């Protein structure tokens, strides 16, 4: 027994030594780009470390359905360890990378843990962009994370609950007004889902309010919704939104948000409206690691912080440092950078895995070539638009294709099955089963409004001193 045990130890040590000798690929970010890179490296002669501050992969294109109660958070999330469990050369670390040393080939995590790499793929995505008005973020949340979607869901359903109790007609009207800023795919899909929720799902659920009096307004600074899409599909999308009851305002910009008061500029005129729920879908900015990489390597970034990369996705002068997904400004194909979509990120991740393998085998590496298979956006029940390059579709055919494309790209089989069953149930019953309000019962816009209606007054207290007290204006 002792001999057998003593004979096993060197084998284990040898295996560990062999693993450490392998080319080490570190991937930062478990989104579409990072996950597809890790999966594609599963059988390669390398060891892979995937680092993400969350322990799950999030299917971001369906976040708006979590926000409107159509799906639960778990339906569109997959544990990274589970997804990659069969790939024995992949190690998953839950942590946040805060710094990169491209010359020393190291990354530093939040708690000062340092990890060496031979090749580094950074795919940390993006966050909301308020165009210099970050103070709006508390009142006008965006949707990039599960927490964002749950917060939006809380505010949406809390607004209806507050309206049910409200006796002031003007305040009730503000509670039933929902303003979606930005008419790209996220804004269009969110506005359509809100309309279905208010005008179909909960229309008979309240006693003292009529949810069909809900006002949903979609704002877009450009001259049409879905600006990246062909003009005829934008027209079709606008018609579908209006059919659902959404008021679409183009060439309109938000200039200020103060409590439940939103200032909107259209042409040269600025008007104000009351809306207790403002949802932000107007822009993105790259993750802070973009600036860190730029500072350390001298690489240029664009106006939203994306790193301008070479044709093989590498950072200039650093052939083993790659950027992928929303963090990459790739302008080597067409007359503008590739968009920050899931489809682009998936192909970037797979490409970088092949690039690493090719370099290790001393094979030539070709430039990244994005295969554009089209784009699509859903508006509501039986309503969507799809640009498939070889043909354009709207209405039910586009909606049908949208459903199965999204089911196909969900990561795990149980997610595919759950979402398909949930969508089927929602379609035939008009119900949304995840209409939970979690967290506190405050509405930030109303809290701000109440504060604005108060003024500070100096009052005399018992000892003759003055103290500040908030009183009604």
Automatic annotation (TrEMBL):
It catalyses: a quinone + NADH + H(+) = a quinol + NAD(+). The keyword Transmembrane helix applies. The keyword Repeat does not apply. This is NADH:ubiquinone reductase (non-electrogenic). Keywords: FAD, Flavoprotein, Membrane, NAD, Oxidoreductase, Transit peptide, Transmembrane, Transmembrane helix. The chain crosses the membrane at residues 390-411. Its EC number is 1.6.5.9. It comes from the Bacteria. Residues 373-424 form the External alternative NADH-ubiquinone oxidoreductase-like C-terminal domain. Residues 24-349 form the FAD/NAD(P)-binding domain. Belongs to the NADH dehydrogenase family. InterPro entries: FAD/NAD-bd_sf (IPR036188), FAD/NAD-binding_dom (IPR023753), NDH-2 (IPR045024), NDH2-like_C (IPR054585). The lineage of its organism: Bacteria, Bacillati, Cyanobacteriota, Cyanophyceae, Nodosilineales. It is an enzyme of class 1 (oxidoreductase).
């Amino acid at each position: 027994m002792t001999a057998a045990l003593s004979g096993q130890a060197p084998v284990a040590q040898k295996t560990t030594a062999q693993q450490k000798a392998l080319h080490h690929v570190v991937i930062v970010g478990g989104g579409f780009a990072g996950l597809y890179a890790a999966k594609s490296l599963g059988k390669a002669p390398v060891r892979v470390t995937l680092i993400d501050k969350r322990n799950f992969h999030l299917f971001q294109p369906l976040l708006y359905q979590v926000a409107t109660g159509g799906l639960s958070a778990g339906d569109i999330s997959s544990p990274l360890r589970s997804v990659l469990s069969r790939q024995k050369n992949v190690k998953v670390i839950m942590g946040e990378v805060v710094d990169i040393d491209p010359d020393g080939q190291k990354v530093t995590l939040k708690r000062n843990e340092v990890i060496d790499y031979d090749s580094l793929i950074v795919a940390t995505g993006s966050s909301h962009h308020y165009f210099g008005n970050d103070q709006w973020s508390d009142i006008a949340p965006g949707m990039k994370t599960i927490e964002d979607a749950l917060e939006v869901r809380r505010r949406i359903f809390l607004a209806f609950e507050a309206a049910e109790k409200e006796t002031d007609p003007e305040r009730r009207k503000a509670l039933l007004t929902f303003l979606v800023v930005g008419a790209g795919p996220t804004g269009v899909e969110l506005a359509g889902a809100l309309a279905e929720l208010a005008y179909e799902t909960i229309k008979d659920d309240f006693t003292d309010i009529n949810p069909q009096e809900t006002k949903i307004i979609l704002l877009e600074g450009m001259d049409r919704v879905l600006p990246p899409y062909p003009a005829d599909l934008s027209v079709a999308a606008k018609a579908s939104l209006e059919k659902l009851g959404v008021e679409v305002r183009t060439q309109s910009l938000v200039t200020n948000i103060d409590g439940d008061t939103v200032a909107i500029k259209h042409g040269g005129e600025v008007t104000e409206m009351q809306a207790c729920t403002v949802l932000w879908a107007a822009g993105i900015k790259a993750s802070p690691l973009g600036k860190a990489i730029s500072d350390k390597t001298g690489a240029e970034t664009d106006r939203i912080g994306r790193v301008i990369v070479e044709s093989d996705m590498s950072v200039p002068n650093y052939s083993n440092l790659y950027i992928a997904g929303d963090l990459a400004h790739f302008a080597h194909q067409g007359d503008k950078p590739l968009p920050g979509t899931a489809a682009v990120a998936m192909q970037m991740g797979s490409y970088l895995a092949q690039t690493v393998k090719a370099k290790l085998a001393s094979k030539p590496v070709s430039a990244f070539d994005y295969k554009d298979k089209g784009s699509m956006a859903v508006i509501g029940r039986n309503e969507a638009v799809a640009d498939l390059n070889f043909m354009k579709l709207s209405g039910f055919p586009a909606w049908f294709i949208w459903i199965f494309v999204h089911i196909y790209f969900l990561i795990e089989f149980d997610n595919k099955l759950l979402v398909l069953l949930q969508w089927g149930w929602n379609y035939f019953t008009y119900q949304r089963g995840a209409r939970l309000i979690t967290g506190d019962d405050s509405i930030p816009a109303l809290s701000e409004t109440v504060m604005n209606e108060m003024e500070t007054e100096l009052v005399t207290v018992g000892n003759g001193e003055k103290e500040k007290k908030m009183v009604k204006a």
